[in-house]
Amino acid sequence: MLFTVLRISRAHSAISNAAFSHARPTVSSLVATRSFLTTAWVEAAKKDAKSTKTTRATAKKVKSKVSGSKAAEKSEKEKALAKTKKESGLKEKVAKATEKVLTKEKAKARREKALAIKKANALKLKEKAKLQREKVRLIRQKVNEEKEKERLAIKNARRPPFKKPKTAYTNFMSQTMNGQDLGTDRTEILKQSAKVWSSMSEEEKTKYAVDPKERVEYLVKYNAWKATLTPKERRIRRKNNARGTIQAYNVFMKENFPKKLEGGMTFIDASRTLRERYLALSEDEKAEYRKKADAILAARNEAKEQANTQKAAAA
């Protein structure tokens, strides 16, 4: 450009060739310097551009790397979050499954406990029933033992361990049976003998009376035996004797009780009225009924004695 200016100036002005030639080296130096500078500048610019490009590329790479790192970090975070959610979901499922299993086990344990309690209660009831049955059995056994003791006491208290002396009737029957053949019908003989005894007079019956000494000896033995009885046996004996007695009041009731109740009178009313009438009787009147009762009892005892004699003879 500088040479162009010099050429133009030489053409339009009177610049000598000497001046032009003198200035030419300077201009060439300047041009060379300029060229160098331009080249250096261009190179520098190129370098700067290249450096800028490199910087940009590096920045882009760095940015890309940073973006990639951030994306990777974000992806890792998302993955970690997803993993955490997944693990949380798995934990929740495991917890629910565990709770379900525990609930089933608890329900099973409750059922087993209830069943065990039911079995224990059933066993207790069974044992209680068994003990109750055993208790009832022991009570029954004790009652039976008491009954057996009472039966033996009644048996011992009912009659002494020795026989009563013979009466006129038993003496008559024994003498009659002694003269009979063993092959005859003893029952028929006893019946006929009883009829004969009933038809005999009191004087005839006295022939068969027993020696009074036997009666006295019997009473001595009887009183001695009676003294050995316990209070319980005595009570039982009195009770047994009372069963066979005929009371004067019973005779009065039997003779005076109406055969037919009239006027709306009940059995209780009639019994109450007769009781009041009996209590109003005098002692002499009551004594008459007592005599009748004794006579009935004597007849009953005699009939019983005859039956026992016939039974013993038949045996």
Automatic annotation (TrEMBL):
User: Which GO cellular component does the record give, naming just one?
Assistant: nucleus
> Which residue positions does the secretion signal occupy?
none
Cite the GO molecular-function annotations of the record: DNA binding
Return the annotated DNA-binding positions. 162-226
Look up the coiled coil feature and give its residue ranges: 106-155
Q: Where is the composition biased (Basic and acidic residues)?
A: 71-84
Q: Where does the record place the region Disordered?
A: 49-84
What sequence ranges are listed for the domain HMG box? 162-226
Q: Which InterPro entries match?
A: HMG_box_dom, HMG_box_dom_sf
Question: What are the record keywords, sorted?
Answer: Coiled coil, DNA-binding, Nucleus
Record's superkingdom?
Eukaryota
The protein's name is HMG box domain-containing protein
Taxonomic lineage is: Eukaryota, Fungi, Dikarya, Basidiomycota, Agaricomycotina
